[in-house]
Amino acid sequence: MSKKILAIDDDESVIWVIRKALEPLGCEIEAKMSIRSGLKVVDKYKLILLDLMLPDGNGIDALKEIKTFNPDALVIIVTAHGRMESAIDAMREGAYDYLEKPFDIEELEIVVEKAFKDISMREELLTLRQGKEEAMPFQKAGQIIGKSRSILKVFKEIGRVAPKDVTVLVSGESGTGKELVARAIHNNSRRKFGQFVAINSASIPKELLEAELFGWEKGAFTGAVEKTAGKIQAADGGTLFLDEISELDIDLQAKMLRFLQEREYSPLGSNKVIKSDVRIIGATNKDLQECIKGGLFREDLYYRFNVIEIKLPPLRERREDIISLARHFLKECIRAFELSQKDFSKDAEKALAGYNWPGNVRELENTIKKASILSRGSLLERRDLFANDYNACSIKEFLESKLNGFLGKMTKIENSNLYETVISEAEKALFNIVLKETKGNQVKAAKILGINRNTLCKKIKEYKIVV
């Protein structure tokens, strides 16, 4: 790993000392004499030495800006104006360490070496975690596909909110990708080196959800044979994603409100108060305002969750993204299930783009997954995607799909009179269906079929159809 350091300090003698101490350790130092010039290059560095008093501003304010532009950077404050208040302010705003001038060269070397080791460990941890996530089909964390105006708005909102360590509410219909948004926020925040823990409030019985969240002591309830940590503790230093928060029991909502206010909780069966540094992202597919009116959701908890809300559009409102998403899912299927290369026909693409997708992105993903596995050819047709939807298939495609298996067997039999058999059976079925639909009205049936009544009467007699 390259050891590049940005030093923002207006004292040339301090820069000289920094170079003399750190360059023999393989460090490459770039010096800037002001906050303004330093901020122009801050995104290029993982380690920054920052003076507290600079000609164009305060180092604490500069630290806040650095954390906005480059949240992963480690910042060491170096100052000749050491005070308890400034040290506390610096560490609270995310400084890695705090050194007073004139600083001990050996101490500077130790702090810098430790910082680079921490950077290396973080990068290794992040690589391992991303590798694990990418090995799982359809779980590329934080990857949201689309170029529509509505989804670009979501991307911008994620970018704005991710560095700010605030509670976020993600709302949208089922299947719109609320967890992907939560992961994107986590992965673009300073917490990305911590755990991302997801829990679905609707999938866990309400009497067990509190234990899952807060953990429990041995003997806290029947079956609690040993002390167990909850999801909040597992997410400490990272992000807890609470899906379907509208399903939280009203009593549990009170405990969640206390946690959001105080950042502390007690496991079941314990009086011990535990502090937790965890970011909460909630998600819902319901109108929480309506839940409040119905007495199902606490208004004070709603406002605690709804510091910032990101609303996800349904797929039918971002149709220009459908084909891009479909191609992404098809590519993932080919890789995950080791399939031969496949593509969509133009007719299939037209059907995909024209469908309303009530189940949103999740329904599209499942449709592509099923079609890619079951289809035989290298080209996915409309019938492969909408096998059970007759409106989405042409008559030709429907008949072909139904006749394929039957004809495959019949062609092996000699003298099967295949043509006459298929045509007569198809005709008989067609006349039966139309006559049943018109309740035996032959004039109306003949008009629907596009033949004259005499021809219809002849066919009724020929096929012995009971009208």
Low-pLDDT windows of residues: 133-142
Distance between the termini: 85 Å
For the CA atoms, what is the radius of gyration?
32 Å
CATH architecture of the largest domain: 3-Layer(aba) Sandwich
Count every beta strand, where a strand is a DSSP E run of 2 or more residues.
Answer: 16
Strand content: 5-15%
Question: Which topology of the largest domain does CATH recognise?
Answer: Rossmann fold
Mean of the pLDDT scores?
A: 86
> How many separate domains make up the residues?
4
Largest sheet: 5 strands, parallel
Please state the overall shape, judged from the principal axes of the Cα atoms. elongated
Helix/sheet category: alpha/beta
Helix count, DSSP H or I runs of 4 or more residues: 20
Helix content: 40-55%
What is the H level of CATH, i.e. the homologous superfamily of the largest domain? P-loop containing nucleotide triphosphate hydrolases
How would you characterize this protein structure?
With 467 residues, the chain is of the alpha/beta class. It is built from 20 helices and 16 strands. The chain has helices at residues 12-22, 35-39, 59-69, 84-92, 105-134, 149-161, 178-187, 206-214, 231-234, 250-262, 288-293, 299-305, 322-336, 346-354, 360-374, 382-385, 395-410, 418-437, 442-449, 453-462, and strands spanning 3-8, 27-32, 47-51, 53-54, 57-58, 74-79, 97-100, 168-171, 196-200, 239-243, 264-265, 274-275, 279-284, 308-311, 343-344, 379-380. Helix 1 (12-22) crosses helix 5 (105-134) and helix 19 (442-449) crosses helix 20. Mean pLDDT is 86; it is low at 133-142.
